[in-house]
Each structure stands twice: as C-alpha cells, then as structure tokens.
Design a protein that fits this description.
By secondary structure, this protein is mainly α. The protein has helices at residues 2-13, 16-33, 45-52, 56-87, 91-120, 124-155, 160-181, 191-213. It has one domain. The chain contains eight helices and no strands.
C-alpha cells in the first residue's frame, strides 16, 4: 500500500512540465559551471576576441546550455502556463503569457545562434557587433520575462508562493533588462538575483503545472 502511494506521488512529479522546469535550471547550472570567459558588457572587439581565443568550444557549449536548450524550456513552460491560465478563465493573462513567453524563447534561440557565430569569429569588429547584439537582446528578453512574471502572478493559476516569486521576478529581471539593454556595466551585478529568481520561477512553475494537469 505504501509503495503504491509512493509510486503515484512519483508519477505526479515526473510530468513533461516538471521535467522541463527542472531541466531548465540544470542546463543553466551546467552552463555557468563550465568556466567560459565572460567579457564586460562594455568590452571592445579586441578584448572579446582575446578573451575567447582558445576557448571556442567552451564558449559554444555555454551558449548551448544557457540560451539554446533554455529556449525550448521557456517555450514549453510558457505554452503550458498559457493553457492553464486559459482553462482557469484568466484569458487576458493567458494571452500575455503566451505572447511574452514565446518572444523570450525566440530571442533566447537567436542569442544561441549569435553566440555560436561569436565563438568562431576572430575579427574584432564582428565580435563586438555580435557580442553587443546578444547582450542587448538579453535585455529585451528579460523585459519580456518580466511581463510573464506579472501575468503569471495575476492569473491565479499558480500557488501563492509562486505568484509572489513571479512578482519579485518581474521587478528584478526588469531592472536587469534595462542594464543589459543599455550596457550599464556598473549595474551588471543586478543580473545575479534576477537569474536566481528566474530559475526558481521556471522550475517551480513546471512542477506546479505538472500537478495542476493531474
């Protein structure tokens, strides 16, 4: 009897939304753990090329783990959250989540492509263009994710603690988005709390949606 109950609980947790949410965080953690160079937001083209020289494979891997794979995670969680909000009658929130979430996912995929190109270039001018384009797009993506956080908090679909996390994410990641959009190196540390809240929100939402679907 106890084994049967444990098996049912395990089955409730191992769902597509839950696996996607957990995989999102694991991918980010792996990407940040491989030790790729991280030039300043205001780095020159020659500084960028010099920092990445000899680390092309590691740089490409980091972009895959922090932008490429997470793009799929953002897309899946956004679509599932949109459906859940729509079923709950929060139609406006559902539309906002769907639109902003897909925009964030597409931008993340574009950043992955730009990152791959950046990892291979040795021309300072091209490196500078690709690097700044990726960072500014990161700013736009963060602002889109701030919108997702607000709409998710307003939808009423998620548990209370996740609604609070969504609201906190909106504030933190909007501030970080401004930093990256305008390349404000002196405020770059704002990205750290925003990323932590994003990982908590996406993973928590995935797990919550898995249980909600059941």
């Amino acid at each position: 009897m106890a084994a049967s109950v444990a098996a049912r609980r395990h089955h409730r947790v191992i769902t597509l939304p839950a696996v996607t949410g957990i995989a999102y965080t694991l991918s980010w953690v792996a990407g940040l753990s491989i030790g790729a160079p991280s030039p300043k937001l205001t780095a020159s083209g020659s500084e960028i090329v010099s920092a990445f020289a000899g680390h092309q494979g590691v740089v490409a891997a980091q972009f895959l783990l922090t932008e490429g794979l997470p793009a799929a995670g953002l897309g899946i969680v956004s679509v599932l959250l949109t459906k859940a909000a729509s079923r709950a009658g929060a139609v406006t929130a559902a539309r906002v989540i769907g639109g902003a979430g897909i925009i964030a996912a597409v931008i993340s995929l574009v950043q992955f492509a730009l990152g791959l190109a950046l990892s291979r270039t040795t021309a300072p001018g091209t490196a500078h263009l690709l690097f700044q384009a990726g960072d500014r797009l990161d700013g736009v993506k963060m602002l889109a994710l701030a919108v997702v956080g607000v709409a998710a908090a307003a939808s009423g679909v998620l548990p209370r603690w996740l609604r609070y996390a969504g609201a906190a994410l909106a504030v933190a990641i909007a501030a970080s988005g401004v930093v990256y959009l305008f390349l404000l190196q002196s405020l770059a540390l704002l990205a750290a709390p925003a990323l932590i809240l994003l990982l908590i929100f996406v993973t928590g939402t995935g797990i919550a949606l898995g249980r909600y679907g059941r």
